[in-house]
Amino acid sequence: MKTRITSFTFLIACLLTLQHAGAQSIASKLTTAFQKFEADSQLQNGIASLYVVDAKTGQVVYDRNSKVGLAPASTMKLITSISAYELLGKAYRYETKFALRKNGKQTSLLIQPSGDPTFGSWRWPVTKEDAVLKDLVRAMQRAGIKTVNEVVVSNEGWNEETVPDGWMWQDIANYYGAGAAKLNWRENQYDVILKSGKQIGEPVSIVKTVPNLNGYGLRSELTSAAAGTGDNAYIYFPVGTSTAAIRGTIPVNESSFKISGALPSGANQFVSMLADTLRTLGINMPQQAVLQHNGTPQQGYTFFHTVTSPPLDSIVYWFNRKSINLYGEALAKTIAYADGSTSDTRKGLDKIRQHWKSKGIAESELAMVDGSGLSPLNRVTTHAQVQLLLHARQQPWYAGFHASLPTFNNMKMKSGTIRGAKGFTGYHKAKDGQEYLFSFVVNNYNGSASSLVKKMYVVLDELK
User: Fold this and answer.
1) Is the confidence at residue 242, as pLDDT, over 90?
2) Distance CA 141, CA 344 (A)
3) CA distance 20 to 10
4) How many Å apart are CA 14 and CA 267, to the nearest integer?
5) Is the pLDDT reported for residue 295 higher than 60?
6) How far apart are alpha carbons 226 and 387 in whole angstroms?
7) CB-CB neighbours of 7 under 10 Å
8) In this predicted model, what pLDDT tens digit does every residue of 5-58 receive, in sequence order?
9) CB neighbours of 345 closer than 8 A, spacing ≥ 6?
10) Helix axes 76-87, 312-321, angle to 10 degrees
C-alpha cells in the first residue's frame, strides 16, 4: 500500500511539473513574441497590453500592461454582455405593450415600450417588421378599431439623448452609430441605394431608401471613385434642418450600391409604417407619434397586445456575433432603468462598475462611457476583461455566452476596431488541451489595421 501511495504521489508530482514546465514554455514564447511585436514600427508611438491566464486555475501566464486603461473598442461588448447576464438574467425579455382608449368618437393608441433593441429586427422570425405589424394589425382589427386619432408613445423615465457620451459626429448618423431609444424599430436602421457615375469624379445619385423615411431627407454630396475602392460614404446628421448629407465616395459603375444609416427616430418610423399598413385596410391613423415624457396617464386605456423580445441569451448571441452597437447601448440603459427611475447610460455603467467592485475589480479599471465600445473615450484594462471572462466561465449561462463569441484566427474571441484601437479578447483551447483566457489591446498604432492584426495573430498563435 505504501508503495502504491508513493507511486501515485510521484505521478501527480510529475504531472504538475510538466504542467508548470508547459506554462513556463508558453510564457517564454509569449515574452519573445510580444517583445518583437512591441519593437515593430507600427507601435512606434503606440501602446499594447496583453494579459493571459490559465482558464482552469486563473494563474497568470503572461502580463504586460494589464492594469493600464486603454480604449477597448468592441471588446467592450464582452463586459456589457457578462454584466447583463449578471444584472438582468439569462431569461430577461423586453416587452412592448399596446393599449386603446375610446372617448366618444376619439380613439387613442398608447404604445408602452421598454427599450427593446430587437423590435422589428430581421434577425429572428418573430421580430421581423412584417411579422410584428401583421400581428398588431390583427389585434387592432379584433378590437374593432376603425380610426385612430392620436398615437402616444410613453417615454417616461427614458432620457431623450439616444446617443451616449463620446460618440463621434462621423459615426452617429450611420447604421453602426444608431442610438438606443425607449422605442426602437428595425434596429433603428435604414438602407440607401446609390447610383454612381461612369467616370471618376462624377456625382452619385440617391435611388431610394428602404424603408421610405418619415420626415427625414437625404442629400448626396458623394462622388464616384475608382473601381474597387469600396464604401467610403458617410451620412452626417443635419443641424437645424431635416435633411442629412451623404459625403465621401463609392466606386464607379454601380447601379445599386447599398449603404446603411441610423434612423433619427425609430418611434416615428414605426408609427409611419403602421399607419401605412392600416391605411390599406381602410383604417386611418396619424403618421407621427406624440412622445409623452412625464407621467403618461393610463386611466381609460385597455391593453390589448404585447410584443415580447427573444431572451437575453439570444440577444447577446447577435450582439457579439455581429457587434451591434445598438444592443450594447440598449442593455446599458436597461440596466440603469431596472429600478424604473432613469435610463441614463452613466447610471447603468455605474451599476456595472459597482457590481464588479463587489467582486474585487477596481472601478478605475472600468472607465466606461458607453456600452458598445464605439466611443474612443472608454478606458478599460485587459486585467478587468480577463477577470470577467474567468467569472463567466464558472456561471450556468456560460455556454450561451461562449457561443456568442465569433471565431477569428481559429480562436473564440471578440474583436474590436475603432480608429487607432484594435483588440481581441476571448478563450482558446490549445492542442495539448490547455485552456487560456486572454485580452490583447493596442492603442495609437501606426499604419493599417489589417497589417497590425496579422502581427497580433502571430503573438496569439503562441497559445495554440
Assistant:
1) no
2) 37
3) 15
4) 65
5) yes
6) 47
7) 10
8) 455 454 444 444 445 555 569 999 999 999 999 999 999 999 999 999 999 999
9) 164, 165, 329, 332, 333, 336, 369, 370, 371
10) 180
